[in-house]
């Protein structure tokens, strides 16, 4: 291209703009190349000549040319003018909306994962979100001070990819707490801090199960755990739970590798596993060489008597993996949980966790360690136990008074949610959907079943709602039922 | 058991203890049952009689009995005294250390995951940890104030399991940042915030790949990505990268589903992919119906000219998934990354993410949104670019002056780490191990290869070390090499 035909006008630079001149020139030249106004093999003007024509410094032209060389629009030639590279045409105009839909396939596993049941919530919509603790009584001011103190002295201890299995202060604090509060016997080294209990379940599913292996899984059971096992390629074998009883007839399946239970407080029905059954289960696991996951998701909340100690404390064959969370004691969006591994799993776990990225921010871990060590957690827990006991009582009372025509609460003394069985003829998914439209959030019991015909019921969190919210929620539920009938 | 033979002495209660009397009584009775001092079928004394003998309130005895009934040690009988349940013997004495080692098997996948390469660091040990940004210049005071402000007004918006795919403020901030800084075109809805880039890679591996599928993966390449694909059951096909060139001869493999590249700044060699190759790669992906993961792990740091725009901006067939991280711009322990999904993947992703628990704490997300929106991130980035440019220059200089006998730095203008090739005859793992013993942290280049004979080299982060730390580190490395020779 001769100096005369070179499209100098298209390179008009705006000297009043905040964008540097070399940047403006780079962008303008790039557009000319992409549009093929400057076709492949064009030799651009020399830096000296273009600088003269545009009345800018020669360095400015060099900077723009260099960037185009870096990105592969121009080729430098020793001692000669740079050449435009022959690029396939680049479509420029399409916006994301108008883009051709490619619909590349997902993996079968991805497809499966995207079809698993999921229950979501939204702020200001807390009656009666299952498993949701109370936000209004959480000491956010204190939490904010603990965070700020740790963050302002963070420097490099809370900075890098260190302590992938957990901040040492938090592992110590958890081990001490579990010993006294939950009867769990472990050293801090056995604890792996994760981004929530679900992350722990997901990680365990992957390191303990291969595609085609079987899990003896509570039915009904926690759908998050079921989904994690299914995502890992496992088959679920039902461990039926009814009326507070775990039906412990071990399945014949040869590929049984893992047993999942919630013995402190069954999810979602709320019963507690008796000592006899716990010992029997340990024996079955040992005979079958199967691991046990003990998911202690809200064992801290028991309203008659004391919390029941965890099964892990009776396990002498290192087959129980205890999974815990701070989602119920503190709050879900904290995204902190942990697992207690048998010593035989300790080695190597850091490699597995580091692949998954399921390890938690060190700052939050350090602040939580302070929260526990300074006694704030125990104090908060004592206080919330009192508040929840009274909310639970009131919820029971109102359910009996207003919803007795449609449902019966399952018995149970533990947990921050309650399950009700629906009167025959009512479909729980329809009720839950109708309730959600009225801003009442509860989950259908049927989503906790993966085999045969599910019982119809509602899983309801009572803990996040004070008396007036509970009353409003229950009356809205009554309206919902009346509308369903109509 | 008669009143006379009942072991009352073993129930001596300590009235000065802080433990409530009912708790003491419960623990003492439980021990007697576990030890079989109270054998199965023993009828315990009535609450009235035991209360009288122990000189405590009858309620106290009832509370202890109730707890034992809940836990399954005692059976209540209507109108009669409670009976000790016949339990299998519970081993009590074993401590975790003396426990029988069960060695239950891991899954093959678990075994594979635990054998993947992993490079760890520790605080106060930062010269020359690859990929580590600088801690001393991070505005922790400001960060602490942003956190504290969001935490103290948290209430329920930062509390529950909401916004699993990301806090709306952060998704908006990221979309705006990516548009101007990285040339990425996306709506906030396409962004999924994860617990770091690794979590994003792990999640993508699972939803895009089935066991047996193939990934065309940079060789050498980022070992974290390689491990995530292997953990998902995929086979790696080498996409050779040499001297800043990506060797784009597509593999014949029929199960090719995914292509992984780091076009802005190759990991670990540091080159930038030219426009021609980017377009060719997009074409290959489209022909083969393969997804592309564009991992832009430190595209922000370019020291000659401007950052090169991301490939995602040229993708009109929705086949590019852009993965980013805040580990290098802010700090790794923050554990925040994100991916930009094509619209076709948006639906359903919330189900997949919720299974894995790889979603990040809302509080950190909200504070980061403020950090970006208030211009702190852009300011920090500008400042660190200047600091890193000078550190990089100094590192180059010292390497040339002191280590020229043993290594040559690869060329490249981007990134916060540098790769050096070792002189023939030196084994990089041995050098890295010897350096670690001297508190210098670097990773062997060979760990980034999964096929054939790896080149020997060292991957070194220069960004976290100021002039004096760099000098100390380089001199220590010289000692290390001299010792290796000896």
Q: How is this structure best described in words?
A:
The structure is a homodimer of 486-residue chains. Helix content of chain A is 38%, strand content 14%. In chain A, the strands form three sheets. In chain A, strands 3-10-9-8-7-4-5-6 form an eight-stranded mixed sheet, sandwiched between helices. In chain A, strands 11-12-14-13 form a four-stranded antiparallel sheet, covered by helices on one side. Chain A has three domains: 8-84, Arc Repressor Mutant, subunit A (Orthogonal Bundle), CATH 1.10.10; 113-121 and 139-374, Aspartate Aminotransferase, domain 2 (3-Layer(aba) Sandwich), CATH 3.40.640; 379-485, Aspartate Aminotransferase, domain 1, CATH 3.90.1150. Chain A has helices at residues 21-34, 47-54, 58-71, 108-114, 140-152, 168-182, 197-208, 223-231, 275-288, 343-346, 349-356, 362-373, 376-403, 428-437, 467-485, and strands spanning 74-77, 80-84, 191-194, 214-219, 235-242, 245-246, 256-261, 291-295, 320-325, 337-340, 407-409, 417-422, 443-444, 457-461. The N and C termini of chain A lie far apart (80 Å). The first copy, chain A, has 486 residues and is α/β, with parallel strands linked by helices. At the A-B interface, helix 3, helix 4, helix 5, helix 7 and helix 8 of A face helix 3, helix 4, helix 5, helix 7 and helix 8 of B.
Short description:
Chain A has helices spanning 21-34, 47-54, 58-71, 108-114, 140-152, 168-182, 197-208, 223-231, 275-288, 343-346, 349-356, 362-373, 376-403, 428-437, 467-485; strands at 74-77, 80-84, 191-194, 214-219, 235-242, 245-246, 256-261, 291-295, 320-325, 337-340, 407-409, 417-422, 443-444, 457-461.
